[in-house]
From TrEMBL:
Database matches in InterPro entries: DDH_dom, DHH_sf, DHHA1_dom, Oligoribo/pAp-PDE_c-di-AMP_PDE
Domain DDH residue range list: 17-152
Residue ranges of domain DHHA1 in the record: 232-308
Protein name as annotated: DHH family protein
GO molecular function, one term: nucleic acid binding
Species of provenance: Lactobacillus corticis
C-alpha cells in the first residue's frame, strides 16, 4: 500500500484528474468523490478536475457529475473512492487514463490500481479522504467539509455503526468547525419523500422472517413503478428490516430494470461480507452488496444468510 505523500506527488504531476466512485451511490461514495474533487480544485485552479459516474439518485444535493468526455482520459490521472472492486466502479472508462489510484476503506480483496491507499479501520471513505486532505494540508473549505461530513454521516449510520471510532468524531469536529450546517446535512440524510416512505412500509409488509433472526424482502420493478420511484431511490428501504428488534441480519433485494437483482446485506452481528463475495459482491463485515441473476439465486442467497445467522445465534445464546 502507498502513502499519502506518494499519492499527493502523483496528483501534483497531472493536469487532468478524473474521480470515480461506485455504482448505486450512497452518501459516502458521492461525498468522498466530491470532497476530494473540491479540495483539489481549490488547491490547483489550473488543473481540470472532473467527477465521473452514473446517476446520483436522490443524492444530487451532495454533488452532481460532470460531463466527462472520452478524450479527457488521455494522459489523465484517475482516482476511485469508496469502491472495493472494479466491477462496481461507476463508468467503466476508469481504466482509460494514464494512471489509476484507489482510495478506499473496504476490505482490499481486489487490490487494483497503480497506487492504492486502503484504511480498513475507517468507517467511511470520506474519513480517509479527510485524513488525506489534512495530512497534505490541502484546502478544507466549507464546500469540501459538507461533502465529507455527509459521507461520514451516511456510512456510520449517523455515528451508530460499530466501525465508528474516536478518530471519526475528531474528524467530524474538524469538518463541523468549517461552519457547515450539521443539522441540514443530517436532515438531508434522513428525509424521505412520501412515496419513499410508502416503499419502506411495503418493504416491511413483504418481509419474511426466519426463526434464526434472518429476514428478507424483495422489491420488484412493478413496486417501484407503482410509486413512481427509480431504482436508485429504492435504497431508502435497505435499513428498514433492521428496525425490528429481533432481526439479526437481513437481505433487501431490489429488482433492476433488466430483471436481475441488486442484493443488499446488512447485519447487527453475523459477518456477511463473505456471503456477498460468493455472489460477485463484497463490502464490510456488517454491510455488503452483491447481485443475483434470478429468483433462484435470491432464494439461495437468503438460505445462506439463514445458516450464518443461525450459527451466530447459537454461538451467542
Amino acid at each position: 500500500m502507498n502513502t499519502f505523500d506518494e499519492i499527493y506527488e502523483k496528483i501534483k504531476a497531472y493536469d487532468t484528474i478524473i474521480l470515480h466512485r461506485h455504482q448505486s451511490p450512497d452518501p459516502d461514495a458521492i461525498g468522498s468523490q466530491a470532497g476530494l474533487a473540491r479540495s483539489l480544485r481549490a488547491a490547483f485552479p489550473s488543473k481540470k478536475v472532473l467527477c465521473a459516474g452514473g446517476p446520483e439518485g436522490d443524492l444530487a444535493w451532495i454533488n452532481t457529475m460532470d460531463d466527462v468526455k472520452d478524450e479527457d482520459y488521455q494522459g489523465a490521472l484517475v482516482i476511485t473512492t469508496d469502491t472495493a472492486n472494479t466491477p462496481r466502479i461507476s463508468d467503466q472508462r476508469y481504466d482509460q487514463g494514464d494512471f489509476l489510484i484507489k482510495i478506499d476503506h473496504h476490505p482490499d480483496r481486489d487490490p487494483y490500481g497503480d497506487m492504492r491507499y486502503v484504511d480498513e479501520d475507517a468507517p467511511a471513505a470520506s474519513q480517509v479522504v479527510a485524513d488525506f486532505i489534512l495530512a497534505e494540508k490541502l484546502p478544507l473549505t466549507k464546500e469540501v467539509a459538507e461533502a465529507l461530513y455527509a459521507g461520514i454521516l451516511g456510512d456510520t449510520g449517523r455515528f451508530m455503526y460499530p466501525e465508528t471510532n474516536a478518530h471519526t468524531f475528531k474528524i467530524a469536529a474538524i469538518l463541523a468547525d468549517t461552519g457547515i450546517s450539521i443539522t441540514d446535512i443530517a436532515r438531508n440524510i434522513a428525509d424521505v419523500t412520501f412515496n419513499q416512505a410508502k416503499l419502506q412500509a411495503l418493504a416491511m409488509d413483504k418481509m419474511e422472517v426466519d426463526p434464526s433472526g434472518a429476514a428478507m424482502t424483495v422489491l420488484m420493478q412493478a413496486d417501484l413503478q407503482k410509486l413512481n420511484l427509480g431504482f436508485e431511490e429504492a435504497s431508502v428501504a435497505v435499513g428498514t428490516p433492521g428496525r425490528i428488534k429481533d432481526i439479526q441480519a437481513w437481505n433487501v433485494f431490489v429488482q433492476k430494470p433488466d430483471g436481475t437483482y441488486r442484493v443488499h446485506y446488512r447485519s447487527k452481528g453475523p459477518v456477511i461480507n463473505q456471503l456477498a463475495e460468493n455472489h460477485g459482491g463484497g463490502g464490510h463485515a456488517l454491510a455488503s452488496g452483491a447481485n443475483a441473476a434470478n429468483m433462484d439465486e435470491v432464494k439461495q442467497i437468503f438460505a445462506e444468510l439463514v445458516e450464518v445467522t443461525k450459527k451466530y445465534s447459537e454461538e451467542h445464546e
